[in-house]
Structure formats: C-alpha cells, structure tokens
Hints:
Layout: E1 3-15, H1 17-22, E2 29-45, E3 49-64, E4 68-78, H2 83-93, H3 99-124, H4 138-149
Antiparallel strand pairs: 1-4, 2-3, 3-4
Amino acid sequence: MPVIGFTFDKLNVEKNRKALERHKGKEIGVRYNIAIKDVKEEDLELEQKQKILRFDFQFDIIYQPDIGAVNVLGHILYSDKDIKNILKQWDKNKDITDNSLKARLINSIFQKSNLKAISLIQEVGLPLHFPLPKIAPPEQQANKAAEYIA
Length: 150
C-alpha cells in the first residue's frame, strides 16, 4: 500500500563553529539515526472517510566530533488494508514487525530527510554529510581502472 503523505513537523540544524575550526582538514565522522517514534490511526476524508496510519518519525545526522547536528521530526500518512494488525504489533512491541513496510517507511524517511538536510547544512555552513561523485579527466580514470584490475 502507498505512502499518501509526508510532512516535516520540526527542522533543526546546529553548527559548533569552534569545533569545526579545530577539525578543519581532519576526518569528520557522521552517524545517522532514523526512528519511528509512534504509530496512530487517523481518519482521512476524501470522497468518503477512510482509516489510515500516521507514523511519527525522527531523523538525525550527528557529526563527530561535536561539530554539528541535523534533527528532523515529521510524519508519514500511509494507507494499508491491515491497519489493525500493524497497530496491534506496534502496541505490543513498539516496533514495525512487517519488514517490507518498515523498509518502505525507512527508505522514504531517509530519502526525503536527506534532501532537506542538504539544504539546512548549506545554510549554516556544515560540511556535506556524504561524498559527492567527482568527475576526473579520462587519463586519470583509465589509470584508476588499471589499478583495480591488476
């Protein structure tokens, strides 16, 4: 069943300027945290009232050492025919036991929150939290390929 809505509820980005200056040119670690914080049943009114699930989530990017952090809170609206079982499992385990559903939710959170994080990170001047691909001249690409083949 589909994700029918994705909303950011809180966006926060912080930079520790002094720590960033101390670690300039040094390796910086990045840790991710993605968590489903709550699951609730809601009513969605389109042509007729329909029951859906609301998954509240938290997404964090934590720079190490203490250089900065991005914190995102939001929720996903999700339509599923098995709402009662998903809620029952959540109430029992505080976890989503359907691995296929969990993967869809986590991937959606990761993709959309990462895009938002890029914008927030640029605003405060933190380094990007993942490496971007780089284009090399053809002669350098051929040398690199030869290194891996040998």
